[in-house]
Amino acid sequence: MPPKGQRANLSARGRHIAQLIGSYDLRARFPQDLNADDGELLGESLALLCGQRVLMGRDTRAESRKFQSSLVSGLHAAGCETFDMGILPTPVIAYGCRLWGTTGLMVTPSHNPVGEVGLKGFSSTGEIWGNEWDLLRKRLRRGLLSGTTKPTPLPPDAKIPPTAIGLKKSYLGNFGRFQKSHLRVAVDPRGGATVGWASAALRAVGASVFTVNDRHSANFFGESPEPTHSNIETLSTLVTKARADFGVTFDGDGDRVMFVNSLGDAVAPEVIALLLNGENDGSPIVASSDVTSRLEDLTKVIRSPVGARNIVHAMKKSGVKMGFELSDHYYFQDAGFVSDGIGIACRVGTLSAQNGAMFIDATTSFGAWNRKMTSVSFSTKKALSQRLASLMQSWPSTASKRQDGYILRGRGDSESVFCRVSNTEPKLRLVVETESRNRTTCLTREVLARLNANQNEHDVTKGQNRLGGLRSSTISK
Question: Whose C-alpha in 9, 391, 405, 424 is 20 to 30 A from the C-alpha of 308?
Fold first, then answer.
């Protein structure tokens, strides 16, 4: 047993790590907020949840490689055997967990900036951890830093140990059951974890693939690992140059996928969701609270708070086969409730081929529609709460509650502002929707003015227009 002073220090570090754990993952700056020693301590603490065998994967960041190494040291010290799958998309780790019946850890902060690390966990059925993080957080806060691993033998039908080659062959082979699409698809992996994987999967379903940034980059070629309407110019250019039917790009770890149409314009996730739900004969869809209300005019919608954990819970509770978020995450019951960007891209290609038309033309019209998403950062959560309360009190119409946020109406039902407090930081997420770009800009400015946020207390960190497909800011047949 370590000396008393050392034990106290370890307990303090454990409590610090506990503060970095979110609803379904861990994210932090490396090494400022989480260093290699913390990683080793975390690895030992994870042993109780992981069992004796753990699949390990990571994204392309240099920080992820270092953080994984420290985690492995801790896991080995606690008696866990690890299987390194190398650089690969997060959904492939989840697939491997289902394939071999073992737990998995993916080292990635997802779409967060370079310089950060993160960790996602998966059960032996391939479902993303939720309650497991709650348990670990409680143990770390109580100073319980390690535990005895529980035996998790490989299933009888797993005759070979997990290997990176075997995993890739099995995952890509799974797309052989898809109907061939024979479409032209532009792909921009952004130097992230989907490099090589996305193009191979799309070719497996019969697509002609044109790529850019299809090699690993520790800094994503200087671009953000989060695809947005404002940073897809490279993909849009490739789409038009290659005369592609559509284009796809992914976030840093490949669980999110963003589409552009043949004109190179971003396509709203609601459009993709309607197309994908056609597989389910128009059954209800679970949608996050920030998804447009217009969707409810076209199909039955079951609302859920934002976050994978909440979407999956709502799907299981209601028995719905599909769910999605405004953040370009799509979940399917038959895919283990894991958002797989590559799998979604292949589904869209197949469905477009079946419909005999481009996916943008295969959906019901939303009418004129323009959306702007903005994040406003505050110095403290208290300051945020005060300003949000002031905004709702001063707004001309009464705010209505929707899951984890509030809806403010503009001039009639066609104008709305969705306000949601971030789950992880003192930020207010705003989604403003109107029928024109100018009006959307004006309404956004009005909201910011009513928040009375000054430069010391807020920073508009993201503003993007997510259009429905055509350059006239409409989604149409």
Answer: 391
Matching residue, tokens 């799309």: 202
Fold of 367-475: TATA-Binding Protein (3.30.310)
Number of H helices, E strands in the chain: 13, 21
Token pair for 437: 């770009």
Cis peptide before 155 (omega within 30 of 0): no
Q: Quick one: fold of 169-361?
A: Alpha-D-Glucose-1,6-Bisphosphate; Chain A, domain 3 (3.40.120)
Are β-strands 330-332 and 412-421 bridged in parallel, bridged antiparallel, or unpaired?
unpaired
> What are the boundaries of each domain within the chain?
4-156, 169-361, 367-475
Residue 135 near residue 50 (C-beta atoms within 8 A)? no
Q: What is the pTM of this model?
A: 0.88
pLDDT in tens, the chain (477 residues): 455 555 557 788 899 999 999 888 999 999 999 999 999 999 999 998 998 899 999 999 999 999 999 999 999 999 999 999 999 999 999 999 999 999 999 999 999 999 999 999 999 999 999 999 999 999 998 877 765 445 444 454 444 579 999 999 999 999 988 878 789 999 999 999 999 999 999 999 999 999 999 999 999 999 999 998 889 999 999 999 999 999 999 999 999 999 999 989 899 999 999 889 876 676 899 999 999 988 998 899 999 999 999 999 999 999 999 999 999 999 999 888 999 999 999 999 888 777 655 555 544 556 667 899 998 989 888 999 999 999 999 999 889 999 999 999 998 888 999 999 987 778 999 999 999 989 999 999 999 999 874 333 333 333 344 333 322 222 222
Measured CA to CA, the distance from residue 127 to residue 312 in angstroms comes to 9
Could you tell me which CATH class the domain 4-156 is placed in?
alpha beta
Q: What stretches of 235-288 adopt beta strand conformation (E)? A: 246-250, 257-260, 285-288
Q: How does DSSP classify residue 265?
A: -
Instruction: Write the CB contacts of 355 (distance below 8 Å, at least 6 apart in sequence).
Output: 278, 362
